Amino acid sequence: MAITNTDISWVDAHPRATRLIVLALFVLLIEGVIRVCVWAGLLPYERYPTSREPQYWAYIDPVVGIWRYPHASYVDEGRCFTTTYSSNSYGARDRERSKQSDAERRVIVLGDSFAEGYGYDETQRFTELLEERTGVEHLNWGTAGGFGTIQEWLLYEKRARDFDHSDVLLFILPDNDFEDNDPSEYPGDAYRPYLRKTNDGYQLYYPVEFEDRYTASRQWSTVVKNTLDNNIYIFNVLRWAIRLLKDESRPFLPVEPTPSYEKYSAEDLEIFLYALEQLVGAVEGRNLYLYLIPRTTDLEYAEEHGEDFALVGELKRFARRFDNVEFTDLLPHFLAYARERGLDYEAFTLGCDHHWGRLGHKVTADIVYEQVFAD
């Protein structure tokens, strides 16, 4: 019996189209599986910028380099958070503040991403918790984007000091603050302030003229690629995997911890202390409180090996030189809080990220309150 066209299935009649449909369904299945894994926290997801020019952070400040555009906003999507960052008219991630104030007390807060509240709602940061609890304004000048001690000193001296205040809080993150003072850690066209040794001490310099700085302008091809990577999770994870294989990022799996309290050289420490001393001079007798921020690896290391870190001793000796400077290591306070409640140290973080989450900000606010405001 002859076989007619009606006896041939569509699949048999269109083998190439069938293969394409099967391939498309397979790709959709993989895309769905990856999205579920990202949602469950089993795979990372990174969001890439899709504008030709930076919209939030950029090398735009002739004093500190990296800073925010005024009245700018930026949505950051991490594996376990979606945060909208907004800046005021001065480029600080804070509500609008007046320069003049008749208040008896007013606080300037300096630091990097921990102080800024990276990945966290700015209305629930430790600065807002303290402001609500005390009625004292806490002007948050913390910023992410690679911000070191030299920049914090200059930011205060040239920008934040213009605001009436009585106290200054500086939050120090040894995990990267020493690196942020080191020009070898950044491209040569990154406009950043550094210190170099001279016969008389240190000289402030910038490795590139402001007009010749890196502006982070993106090619259209990069914009298209980032848009695809943001919306197609297969591409997103593939990009992460390729970077991981090239050793351009930290491994996804945990590595043997090294305490960040020991991540500095003698030269790093000397530059760091010099910048701190310039900050002490700039505060002009106001109260200056220094806080050392531990990472989870520091807490774990201290639990096993003790809390005798050389950096803590250095900062204690530094603070004793000045009547208006107090130093506090947050590490023993975080340790005690976790021990008393049987908590894992990750409880202080966002979970998928090492920055402080709700509990980290709460505990920090409690520590500062007891030291600065409880009489």
**Rg estimate, integer Å:** 25 Å
Using the coordinates shown, work out and report the CATH topology of the largest domain.
Rossmann fold
Segments where pLDDT lies below 50 for 5+ residues? 249-253
Helix-strand makeup class = alpha/beta
CATH architecture of the largest domain: 3-Layer(aba) Sandwich
Average pLDDT: 90
Question: Strand content of the residues, in percent?
Answer: 5-15%
Report, as a whole number of angstroms, the end-to-end distance.
Answer: 103 Å
Form type? globular
Order of helical and strand elements: HHEEEEEHHEHEHEEHHHEHHEHH
**CATH superfamily (homologous) name of the largest domain:** SGNH hydrolase
User: Percent helix among the residues?
Assistant: 25-40%
Side-by-side strand order of the widest sheet: 6-5-7-10-11
Count of spatially separate domains: 2
- Please summarize the sheet with the most strands: 5 strands, parallel
Written account of the structure:
It contains 13 helices and eleven strands. Helices cover 39% and strands 14% of the residues. α4 packs across α13 and α7 (220-231) crosses α8. The N and C termini lie far apart (103 Å). With 375 residues, the chain is α/β, with parallel strands linked by helices. The protein has helices at residues 10-13, 15-39, 113-116, 126-134, 149-158, 177-180, 220-231, 233-245, 266-283, 296-305, 310-320, 330-341, 358-373, and strands at residues 57-61, 65-68, 73-77, 82-86, 107-110, 138-140, 167-172, 194-198, 201-205, 287-292, 325-329. The protein folds into two domains: 11-43; 62-217 and 250-373, Rossmann fold, CATH 3.40.50. The chain has a five-stranded parallel beta sheet with strand order 6-5-7-10-11, sandwiched between helices. Strands 1-2 form a two-stranded antiparallel ribbon. A two-stranded antiparallel sheet has the order 3-4. The protein is globular, with a radius of gyration of 25 Å.
